[in-house]
Amino acid sequence: FAYGIYLTFTNWDGIATTHTLVGWRNYGEVFRDHVFWKSFGLTLKYVLFSVVLINGIAFLLAYALTRGLRGQSVFRAGFFVPNLVGGIVLGFIWQFIFSKVLVYVGTKADIPILGASWLADPDKAFWSLVIVTVWQYAGYMMVIFIAGLMNVPGDILEAASIDGARGWTTLRKMILPLMVPSFIVTIFLSLQRCFMVYDVNLSLTKGGPFKSTEFVSMHVYEKAFLSRDYGVGQAEAFVLFLLVAAITLLQVYFSQKLEVE
Q1: pTM of structure
Q2: Handedness of CA 88, 92, 94, 99 (dihedral sign)
């Protein structure tokens, strides 16, 4: 990590055996690289939708699968399985689904929205990445929520029931406040994973069409290794690290203020 920071002050191309110090020039290039900031903005949009959907769906699944549903252990395992699939393989699987399966269904059933591959449309390609990400991580976050729900004191829920609290009131006033520690963990993990997404981005869309889904990690990789501008690429990676660290630390700080005894 320290050596990586040192390389941000050099003109190394990633191949040569020698390099020279260039001071803060690479960081100046970072702030002048409008493509980097455009990809960062696109990544922010992706993170926002993905994190909200991942945690919302994961909590709903966890809540449903701790109500004593028959066969709920099987459902828990089933929803967790996508997290075990590697990102590259996952991308290729969903590439086949979006390009072949859904197009076939849309054509046969005369469903216009599925009539053409989402991966060929700049707007729909973005949402295809969101869908795949939510499908991959919701089951993992669900397990954390299940652990949190199982640790909610039963006597508190019983007291609330005696006082007349039912359904939505119990969930909003009793369960959700006690689940804040679980939300801190799941939001932190989903923020980190979504900001650093690369494998699914590469195998599903390759940043296309027309770079409409080139997230910031892919841009940094291309700058460092394909453009052979490792000093600038490493500087962009370090700036990205600082931005993500600041966002996640702020998230943890403000979330902890919502915790209840």
Answers
A1: 0.91
A2: positive
